[in-house]
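Chapter review: from sequence to fold.
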Amino acid sequence: MATKYRKGDVVDGWTLGRSLGRGGNGEVWEAERGDLRLALKILKPAGAGSEPYRRFRDEIAVHTLLGECAGVLPMRDHRLPANPHKNTPAWLAMPIARRIEMALGVAPSLERVLKAVAEIAETLASLAERQIAHRDLKPQNLFERNGAWLVGDLGVAVFVGKETATRTGRQVGARHFIAPEVVRDPQNASPYPADVYSLAQTLFVLASGQRYPPAGGVRAFEQSAQLRSYVDHPRVPTIDWILEQATATTPSERPTMKELASTLRIWLRGPPPAVSPLDLSDLAVAAEQRVRDATNAAARRAALNGHADRLRKQAKTGVDEIARSVAEVLSGFKHEQGIGFDRSFITFISGNLEAETFSGQAAYGILEVHRFTLDWPSHLSLWTGIGLLMNSSGKMLLAAGHIIGHGQGSYVGHAPDAVVVMRDPRVVSVGTPEAEEAVGQQVRALAETSRAAVEQFLRLPAE
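The token string follows.
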């Protein structure tokens, strides 16, 4: 549009200097009045009922509501005549600031762009808490002044008490940055997720150097709609994911402005620092000793188990021979061998010796016991054999004996009236001649008492 004012013109006491820009609804000039040097935004002549006038009125209203608000380019003065014309136009004055693209410079780093946008997002999140939404976010409406990144041009902002300025059905915002729901239904679309969408599109443009953002938003896996196609940075894929979420088609799937600001700040902190190598050399000797101890302990345990297994085989040979003789007499009874590890058998035979020798769990336990039963109608049971229980120090409890009683289960513990006919518990050290001698003595004692045990078993009454 043709410039309606020229350098040197005086507007309501303001002397115009260089032109800072112009648009469909007015012009912006560097202007001086007395000691003040500000940017003067002048509305082109428009009736008080026109849409441009009402937007200008609303921009003055929201600035008046905000006052000095961090992150917002402030209004220093204004005039809003009831019937503006060229000689007495509507205007508002604000500090001179640089547009964000100029302030960022040519090919800015991704970190610099994100720092600027994160600061702007924090401002917009603060405005959202006061029920204010911008609705026209794009690079041209963002500024830098004295190192601070600012939001400006609040003509179409939503705030409490605002009257509708846009005609029903008319699109609000810049076409390439506007959220899809605003295109579909500008009157009813929520402005807060729409601001998130527009700021994300703005971030894309500022970081990529492109004039326009991708139509429909950023898509992390589509080359033409991803930031990594334009920015060479090892962490740019993360930004693509952030932008894809912020430009989701469904407003409810986007983060809030506060969440977006927080996510950008986290990205700016960078990845966690790499862990420095630890100096644990002083622990090496202790670690080597523990390995040696464990190796020695494993070897000792293997040796102990080998000795224990030889004692088991010695006991099994003797017990099996005794059981064959008993089985010939009790041929009509059920005969079981290898009934499982029945610790109750050892407890019945050894009494207190078990508790004294094994306060914890045994390192080795085996039972060489035969069971003879007559299930009906008496449920009679005879257990005969030897139990072997060894602790981790190599002490072994040898528990040889005969037990009789009534019980329907396999274990001695299932016979509530179990009676020990013969017991010969001993504690020995495995791997010694004394241990082998003790097993032999127990087998002989078991054989010598077998007749008495069978006789007492056969006299046991039915239940």
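Two observations follow directly from the output. The first helix runs from residue 51 to 66. The chain has eleven helices and 14 strands.
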